[in-house]
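Just scan this pair:

***
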Amino acid sequence: MSWFAALRDTARTGLTIDRTLTDPKRAVRGAVAVALVLFPTLALGDARLATSAAMGAFIAGTATFQRSFRPRATLAVAAGIGLGVSTFLGYLAAGVTGLFPVLLAVWAFGAGLTWAIGPTAGVVAANTLSVMLIVVQLPVSPLTALGHGLVCALGGAVQALVITVWPIGSWTAQREALADTYAELADYARRLRQDPTAHVDPEPFMEARHAAALTPWQDRHRPPELRGLRGLAERIRPTLAAIADPKVGAPEEGPERDRAREVLAASAEAMDALARAIRTGAPLQLPRSAPALTLVARTEGPELRGAARRAARRLAGLLRKASDTLDRSSEDTIDSPVLQPGGALRKPPLVRMLPTALRAVRRQFHPRSAVFQHAVRLAGVVTVAYLLARLVGFQHGYWAPMTAAMVMRPDFAQTYSRGVARLAGTVVGVAASTLVVQLARPGEWVLAALAVVSIGGAYLTFRTGYAVITTCISSYVVFLLGLQEGNPLVTAVERVGLTLLGGSVALLVYALFPTWQTARLGERLAEWLAAAGRYAAEVVAVYERPAAPRGREVRSALLDSREARSELLQAMQRADAEPGRHASGLPGVSRRQLDRARAAVGHLGRVAVLLEAHLPGADAEPVPGAAEFAEELRLATALAAGALLTGQPVEFDAVREAQAQLERRLAEQPAGVQGDVVRSGTRLLLQALKDLERALRGGGTAAAAERREPEPTAR
């Protein structure tokens, strides 16, 4: 993609307006919290203190609108504390010549590193940087710096108090995440009817796991219908694949395939009903074709046989348990480790998360890390924009570094789309609000009321588009700063000019010092290969030692594989928006070869899913040689991942020899049905590894591999 096409597409994305609105009640609640801080502080007669308080309440409220499964009151308090500290330090540094730019660079670097913790932490940290830039420009004595910092923190405390007193949709995020999982399972079942080797989207499962991590208070108060359903969804996923796959399930053609399609269609309808009930909290209404009634009880017509029939019976039982869970109105034992192999997920309080957050930041503290590069870039851009504004002599020079801080993101697409949206939204917001101030000449109380209305509009349009949000936020800041002395028209012209300056610096610096996701695709593929190999090895090893409790190891390996695949798909999506032609990130490997290799690794993971669907019970007959094959597979895929990154040839001769030895042992000592499953599964694993070898050599065609994993819808 050319630079012109990339810039055109990202600009179009940034200016796209979605008509979706945030929950109006939550938007009103956030605006009310700002008003509860702004008006009493203004009544004390100190407009500067009122500005600090209102900015603190605004940013704390913004934190509660980020996607998070933690109590939103906790997020507001944490954001308020961060704002108070940044404001206090900013005021102290502003009183010492030359110290503020140093503090600005250090704080910006730290804000960039917080992206290692997650997007919510990164956005909130960038907002604290913006507040520091705005409020410290208001002339105060050093003795009042602590007061301004405390008032900013007070804004977060008031937001938390209002959220606690006025709860709205306390479990909406958890319901949405769990419902999305069942909706994805329903779509997956429909896709399997047409493509028996289709892949499931891992994102809803990952979100549901994050949502299932609860604090002790949340665990005691969550709705009963949210208990245990995630574990059942994890078990339904491989069961659906086991029914559809022609190698281990229903035949590719014939009456049994038609029957499998009927089962999948009925399952999809049932899971759609489950998703609706979870999302709304309404009673479950299963369709007449519910699998609990038709999967096994039906006697006329063709029937499923063998492994496909066992999988269908298992699916019917899982769907019955899911519907029973929603029908019950009180807690039961559905969250037991038997039904939820991952065990109970406990989320520590926010204070106890600090060591974990520090470890996450420390892991990213090296020059090759995308987060580290973003932190360096953010610190440089903000400091340069601040110094340029001071050099030009603008009175309100903080607007340029503030724009740069809000625009910068770790990847190209977000930075440029937000940059264009920020420029457009700021120009419109500043022009409109300045026109109101210039024509109406409102007093302090009217300006405060207009600020509250503007921030309510920002909260309401969080899902509408960044350009619209920026328009409302710019108006909010203009009305707040209108409480100070100055010529509104001159101030508006300065702000527009500084916005263009800060945005241009941010976009130019990213173009000169980019972090291309395309160059990191090889690393993401290598990580997925190693994780998928470990997952397959953990599953195969269970067949030799079925009585050993290995559910936690299998679940952990599955989660690692799922996360690695998700990171690769996200990197590919971002890479597609980048300009120019970049290498795949692997020595001597083209992007086309990388796509073929991705399809082969996807097939490897899918075979592991099929084997997991048929895991033996504790009293099943062991399969001799399965553990040895599993260990060889784990080692070979780990070595292959390293070979990918170093440009060495990838080969799996040792795995072929281990599989041949496994076949010989099974011929000497048959292990019944489980032995047949392992024999078929390991052959499919070898085929996936052979496809990977061919893809990286560039030989042959990859049509078969590409059919196994169609392009993800996100792309």
Remarks:
- The CA atoms of residues 239 and 281 lie 26 Å apart.
- Residues 412-440 form the longest helix (29 residues).
